[in-house]
Amino acid sequence: MKRNKLLKKLFKKKMTLEQAILFLISGIILGTVFTFGQQYWNAPITRNESISVKAEYSYHNQRLVRPDSHAVSIHCSDGEIYRIDAHTVTNDILDYLDTLETGTKLNMLIHPNSDTILSLEVNGERILDFDEVIDDLK
To answer: What is the H or E stretch that residue 135 is in?
Structure first.
């Protein structure tokens, strides 16, 4: 009952024509940015176009994207944050990241248009394979 009263109160005033035009233009701009931005941020690239990064692991965060999918942020000791896309995260990767200790050396290939990790190697062991990640991001 309270919810209905709150909704009626919020929508009591009608939107003016200027407000409607502003919302329409804002929606078109945001839709365009997110539609075409995804193609830019995750554009397929070659191994030579990626950026090689060596960093020290500090900690990681997991964020539930869908009921069966996690996005992971890896925080490094230099303050940089790199992300593993939710399409490429598996339970094995999550389990492996849970075993990493602070100060572990990471060798990564990063997408030049974003902070997405395309390849991850720890102590000579490949955790994320470049070719598989690129295929998953398509």
So the answer is: helix 130-137
Q: In this model, does residue 137 exceed pLDDT 90?
A: no
Closest by CA to 88, choosing from 71, 106, 73, 67, is 71
Q: What is d(CA 85, CA 118) in angstroms, rounded to the nearest whole number?
A: 9
The sign of the dihedral angle between the CA atoms of 42, 138, 74, 57 is negative
Contact 105, 54 (CB under 8 A): yes
Q: Which amino acid is at 109?
A: L
User: How many other β-carbons are positioned within 10 Å of the β-carbon of residue 43?
Assistant: 14
Query: Does residue 58 have a pLDDT over 90?
Result: yes
